[in-house]
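Lecture 7 notes: from sequence to structure.
We start with the chain below.
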Amino acid sequence: MKLEPRIIKPRYKPSTFPFIVIGLLVLGLVTSFAFIYFSDLLPRSNDPATITALSVTTLPAIVNLPQPTNTLIVKTPVVIGTSQNLISQSLPSLTIGEPAPNFTLNNLGGKSVSLSDYAGQAVLINFWASWCQPCRIEMPELVKAYENYRKKGFVILGVNLTDQDQMPDITTFVKEFHVSYPILLDTDGTVSDKLYYYPGIPMTVFVNREGNIDQVQIGAMSKQQIDDGVNALLKK
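Predicted structure tokens for the same chain:
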């Protein structure tokens, strides 16, 4: 009897290549989302050297505000970017040379205070919060400026973002820095968000004796910047 040779077929083994590709894609997506999420939570440097000021000479019309983001906290307690990567922001209510939007808020003592109460004076409106590290950088210089210039008809209105802050933290902050100028509580964000369209904090608006916006500052200010801004107001 003649035996036929037996042909043994190799057992099929599915390729692992598609699974490797899918795994790498999933890993890439997870890594990308994790990087974006955690990079937003990590604070960057608060170097005051990255400050950018906007004035009548630089912005004659609508204020298109750049974000010098080493010293800017954007609407949540997060510091982003660098001042070399400027993002244009349009604030509809803020026009250099036009009247600053009037507002009324309660101070820490519960008394109503309006911007119009200071008509004829040079006013610096500073938007801040107790958790804002750049705000802490400039606060001592703001306090000194108020004490140095108040007798010349200068006032600072510190508008606290109370809808994003806590009263115990606010009062502790004020005591720590011996803030002597009026602190106003924006409890629902009406002034900061709806009237002044702040892109982030600290934000400072210089208002001259005629009630018009003279300069807008985004980011923590140095002593020199504060003095220059105040002196410009007092000369007009």
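Points to note: Residues 17-41 form the longest helix (25 residues). The chain is about 30% helix and 20% strand.
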